[in-house]
Specification:
The strands form two sheets. A six-stranded antiparallel beta sheet has the order 1-2-3-10-5-8, with no helix packed on it. A four-stranded antiparallel beta sheet has the order 4-9-6-7, with no helix packed on it. 26% of the residues lie in helices and 32% in strands. The longest helix is centred in the first third of the chain and has 17 residues. The chain has five helices and ten strands; from the N terminus they run αααααββββββββββ. Strand 1 and strand 2 form a beta hairpin. By secondary structure, it is α+β, with helices and mostly antiparallel strands. The protein starts with 8 loop residues before the first helix and ends with a strand.
């Protein structure tokens, strides 16, 4: 058994990612063992980074999860950058709907949360028919202007400084009725 201070950081991140993948599929260690042909104890030790997984073990797990080994390793090779410079924050614009989205703290496989700055022009109305991940946690903090957010058939009117906290299970709608537009910060946390 490996001592805690001898653990390779890549093995630690790989173990965490393997545990996340199993959880995303809703499988127990026993179910994954049956699907992969790898013992429960070996799977458990790999997820806890008590052992460095072999290429053969990773190949079996990649087959079960429908990934190439390169895909899996790319998800864990580098730790997320501690600082994301403003110039490196990707901006996406939906000009047709009047929505600008800056990824202030972009998603990373090693992190559960991200920060997004949203800007809606006056009259912008965005409707989403479902969350990308059911149960997604969102915190919406209005920085300037006002915003109406509808979730689970309840409309919330938010002014500058207000914050809406919610888990998203169904359709949502973001609407800007303010003549000056709205700027808000969206914190997203995966379940």
């Amino acid at each position: 058994m490996r001592r805690e201070d001898d653990t390779d950081p890549v093995d630690t991140r790989l173990g965490l990612r393997l545990a996340e993948l199993r959880a995303e599929h809703g499988w127990s260690l026993g179910e994954l063992a049956e699907r992969s042909g790898v013992s429960r104890s070996t799977l458990s030790r790999a997820e806890r980074a008590e052992t460095s997984p072999t290429a053969a073990l990773l190949n079996r797990l990649c087959a079960v999860y429908g990934r190439t080994m390169s895909q899996l390793l790319s998800e864990v090779e580098a730790a997320p950058a501690a600082v994301v410079r403003a110039a490196d924050q990707p901006v996406w614009q939906d000009r047709a709907s009047g929505f600008d989205r800056r990824s202030v703290s972009p998603p990373h496989p090693a992190l559960r949360g991200e920060l997004v700055e949203g800007r809606l022009t006056a009259g912008a109305d965005l409707a989403y028919d479902r969350p990308p991940v059911p149960g997604l946690e969102q915190h919406i903090w209005v920085l300037e202007g006002s915003l109406e957010v509808t979730a689970q058939d309840t409309a919330h009117r938010l002014g500058a400084g207000d914050c809406l906290r919610m888990r998203v299970w169904g359709p949502t709608r973001f609407r800007c009725a303010a003549p000056e537009g709205v700027r808000y910060l969206l914190a997203v946390v995966r379940p």
